[in-house]
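User: Structure with S-adenosylmethionine, tokens only please.
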Amino acid sequence: MKIDILTLFPEMFESPFGYSLIRRAIDAGHVNINPISFRKHGVGKHAMVDDTPYGGGAGMLLKPEPIFEAMDAIHAENPDANRRVILMDPAGKPFDQNMAEEFSKEENLVFICGHYEGYDERIRSLVTDEVSLGDYVLTGGELAAMVMIDATVRLLPGVVGNESSILEDSHSTGLLEHPHYTRPAEYRGMSVPDVLMSGHHGNIEEWRHKESVRRTFERRPDMIATLDLSDKELQWIEEFKTEE
Ligand code: SAM
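Assistant:
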């Protein structure tokens, strides 16, 4: 997968993608992450990338020309790529795990990072998706793009060593993930549940499934409400209610 990032601050991406799994994914050739300064397509001798809004008002807007020209260059390099062009926008669709899964299947992702007050509206004609990281306003789209890229790249085949762990992650199954424990079995008066040390795989699976339902029920009733629960899961939920 190739990921192009249109930004005014390409250096911001060096550190987040310079470590751990994402770094290894880049080194192993699973992904090519390519921050591009669209300032190089700036207008006039001062390479202007922003301007005041028509009609007046506060703040500066990103001009259309630098972004259109940067997109022309990406397109010219590989005109036939299966490409998603994703605009970082607090007014966009909220990013989630399903979106990360969709993005992970594409050949080329282009993230457009805004700054200042926002974009000239015509820039939206270039994009396939307008996406928000959440209901708050950041100073620029870079941090949002980093989060979305991280969540997407870890889903690429071969990036996470144990791929079954990805399938069990919170939000991948529709439920939050169950609790985990590692050694020691007893720590400061807190012990590991006996079932996890029993070696009985069936019971362990059932305990994990139940705790996953419990955690989702307790923390994210909005998620539980969207699931088609089995009779057993419904029965567990009745149990949790009596425990409350
Ligand atoms: N005036 C804009 C508005 O009210 O929607 C906010 C502009 S914000 C200061 C500058 C840029 O940061 C945005 O154009 C966008 O690219 C990025 N940004 C800010 N918050 C974001 C969020 N929650 N998700 C994604 N991008 C965001």
